[in-house]
């Protein structure tokens, strides 16, 4: 994420010289100076105005809400300090949601990014019908999350699902109830995420790969490096910034996972009979908008944010090592 | 990241050497073919079920070709009153178009200011946008945002799912970059010297040059917003839903009626597929261009 802030002059522009040129409008210096000074702020004001109301205010106010107890009759709130946080940290349901979220995240993200790398490497070869293939791998991204979840939930159906039918045809005669256990529900949800996002990440990697100078590969070939060696020693280190970007996006997306598990539970927030696939985002909605404990939900939202920061930090140190970083 | 951009467009030249490292092996081609089938199958499966009957859907072996019941199934979805499907579809069109048009306009204005105007605090303000892009605002602020909607009396109204989506840091970021690359600084200076006002420069110099960037942003915003689920599910009522909320209620109320659910789902995806088929090239191009600079 680097807008190159320093490529242009950061100092104010020299006053535009109007001397000696034709004046297409009267030289009304007050208005033109106002235009120069104030117009930029006017142009960016819609964004910042909206951000203040619908972005910054909720974000900051969450902290205040998270220190309130809304559990009283009549809907009044009372200040309770950090009570919600201590309660949450001792709440096994919350920790269950944390474990589920992290579990599904790891189960989904690792194969997804590895597959995306391999796919991008394949897409980077000389191929006929390149645009068609790229569109094909991006098609899942265009399909809405809810739709993906609905289709996959049916495919994972216990009695009439295609996956169980396939397993049956392969001789594994087990009618798996995918929703019932942790491992199976996590796997099912992880495949939904992966189906939708692998192609997108591959296209992003491909864009990174195409900026690598071709001569590097040619030189390596002449020196006798195998394609696999080239992939590890040239491709991976060169696209590390791109990998970093996808890891960040996947971390934020994965830890806030919501639509897939909700639809997998038939539009409920409990995440299965024993909450075996309830994610933190579902837990927040359940606490805040089913049990109407706003304070508790807000505290959970802040803990989710801490978890995201933690996840980003861990992944950052991890990705820096990819491809032999110093 | 600058190293990447400086690396230059070496990829543009595809050599004729048959033994070059960019040759696709048969294994690569087979793997790609398999990937394509996996990518397309779930959508194809959706169409199969949406065009058949419920008894077909549970057949063993499963049906692999579409049937002839699509029209009838669509009528059944529209007649299912508790889903308010038509309302949902219409609402989604209204919300998504409003959000798309507004985001593109807001971002183009701001992008122009950040890329080509000089004002105090520019870098700081742009930096603050980049920083907030990393925060999942929707999830983090969901409780106060809801309370705000209660106080404004907007719960159940489309305003509640339009206004919070108008702030789009990604859009501003993207249009800033696009303007930097599409409009030379000298062009803006020359227009100034000729006495053009800022708004006039925007209209006559910037707008014609950044139109392709606006198109890509519009496409991405449309697709992203059409998909939005968590916030509409919380703040809208079952009687006045967006299409995603509508099919989620359809699923909850008719758990075993696969044909009904799949037909609704297919209809909800249709606008996205239409946009994708019509503008696929621009979408892929926009994603890849954005990726290199990200």
Automatic annotation (TrEMBL), chain A:
Question: Does the entry feature the keyword Transmembrane, yes or no?
Answer: yes
Organism of origin is Sphaerisporangium album
Q: Which residues form the ABC transmembrane type-1 domain?
A: 98-315
Going by the UniProt record, its keywords in alphabetical order are: Cell membrane, Membrane, Transmembrane, Transmembrane helix, Transport
Residue intervals passing through the bilayer: 41-65, 94-119, 131-156, 183-207, 238-259, 296-319
Q: Does the keyword Cell membrane apply?
A: yes
For this chain, the family text in UniProt reads:
Belongs to the binding-protein-dependent transport system permease family.
Location(s), subcellular: Cell membrane
Q: Which residues form the signal peptide?
A: none
Write down the CDD domains for this protein, in alphabetical order. TM_PBP2
Could you tell me the membrane topology recorded for this protein? Multi-pass membrane protein
Q: What is this protein called?
A: Sugar ABC transporter permease
User: Where do the record's region annotations for Disordered lie?
Assistant: 1-26
A GO-annotated cellular component: plasma membrane
Offer one example of a GO biological process linked to this entry.
transmembrane transport
Q: Which InterPro entries does its entry note? A: ABC_transporter_permease, MetI-like, MetI-like_sf
């Amino acid at each position: 994420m680097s807008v190159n802030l320093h490529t242009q002059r950061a100092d104010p522009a020299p006053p535009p010289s109007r001397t000696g040129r034709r004046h297409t409008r009267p030289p009304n210096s007050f208005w033109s100076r106002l235009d120069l000074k104030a117009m930029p702020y006017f142009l960016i004001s819609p964004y910042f105005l909206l951000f203040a109301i619908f972005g910054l205010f909720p974000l900051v106010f969450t902290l205040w809400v998270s220190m309130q107890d809304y559990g009283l009759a009549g809907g009044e709130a009372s200040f309770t300090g950090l009570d919600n946080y201590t309660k949450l940290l001792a709440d096994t349901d919350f920790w269950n949601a944390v474990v589920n979220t992290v579990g599904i995240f790891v189960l989904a993200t690792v194969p997804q990014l590895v597959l995306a790398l391999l796919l991008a490497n394949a897409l980077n070869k000389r191929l006929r019908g390149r645009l068609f293939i790229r569109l094909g791998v991006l098609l899942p991204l265009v399909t809405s999350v809810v739709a993906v979840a609905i289709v996959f939930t049916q495919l994972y159906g216990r009695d009439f699902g295609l996956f169980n039918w396939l397993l049956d045809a392969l001789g594994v005669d087990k009618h798996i109830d995918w929703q019932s256990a942790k491992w199976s529900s996590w796997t099912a949800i992880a495949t939904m995420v992966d189906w939708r996002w692998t192609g997108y990440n591959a296209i992003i990697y491909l864009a990174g790969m195409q900026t690598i100078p071709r001569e590097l590969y040619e030189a390596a070939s002449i020196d006798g490096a195998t394609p696999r060696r080239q992939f590890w020693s040239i491709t991976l280190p060169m696209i590390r910034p791109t990998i970093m970007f996808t890891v960040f996006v996947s971390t934020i997306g994965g830890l806030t996972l919501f639509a897939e598990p909700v639809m997998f539970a038939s539009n409920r927030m409990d995440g299965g009979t024993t909450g075996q696939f309830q994610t933190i985002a579902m837990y927040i909605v359940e606490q805040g908008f089913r049990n109407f404990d706003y304070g508790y939900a807000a505290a959970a939202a802040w803990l989710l944010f801490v978890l995201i920061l933690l996840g980003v930090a861990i992944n950052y140190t991890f990705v820096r090592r990819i491809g032999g970083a110093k | 990241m600058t190293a990447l951009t400086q690396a230059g467009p070496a990829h543009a030249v595809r050599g004729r050497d048959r033994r070059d490292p960019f040759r696709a092996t048969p294994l690569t081609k087979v793997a790609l073919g398999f990937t394509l089938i996996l990518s397309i199958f779930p959508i194809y499966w959706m169409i199969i079920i949406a065009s058949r009957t419920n008894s077909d859907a549970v057949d063993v072996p499963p049906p692999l070709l579409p049937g002839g019941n699509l029209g009838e199934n669509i009528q059944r979805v529209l007649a299912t009153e508790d889903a308010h499907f038509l309302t949902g579809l219409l609402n989604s069109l209204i919300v998504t178009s409003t959000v798309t048009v507004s985001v593109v306009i807001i971002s183009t204005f701001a992008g122009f200011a950040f890329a080509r105007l000089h004002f105090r605090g520019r870098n700081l303000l742009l930096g603050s946008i980049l920083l907030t892009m990393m925060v999942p605002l929707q999830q983090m602020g969901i409780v106060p945002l809801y309370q705000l909607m209660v106080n404004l009396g907007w719960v159940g109204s489309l305003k509640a799912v339009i206004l919070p989506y108008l702030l789009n840091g990604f859009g501003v970021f993207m249009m800033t970059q696009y303007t930097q690359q599409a409009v030379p600084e000298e062009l803006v200076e020359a227009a100034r010297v000729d006495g053009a006002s800022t708004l006039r420069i925007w209209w006559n110099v910037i707008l014609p040059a950044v139109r392709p960037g606006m198109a890509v942003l519009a496409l991405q915003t449309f697709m992203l917003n059409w998909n939005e689920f968590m916030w509409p599910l919380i703040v809208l009522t079952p009687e006045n839903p967006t299409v995603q909320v509508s099919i989620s209620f359809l699923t909850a109320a008719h758990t075993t009626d696969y044909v009904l659910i799949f037909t609704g789902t297919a209809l909800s995806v249709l606008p996205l597929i239409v946009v994708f088929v019509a503008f696929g090239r621009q979408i892929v191009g926009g994603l890849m261009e954005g990726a290199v600079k990200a």
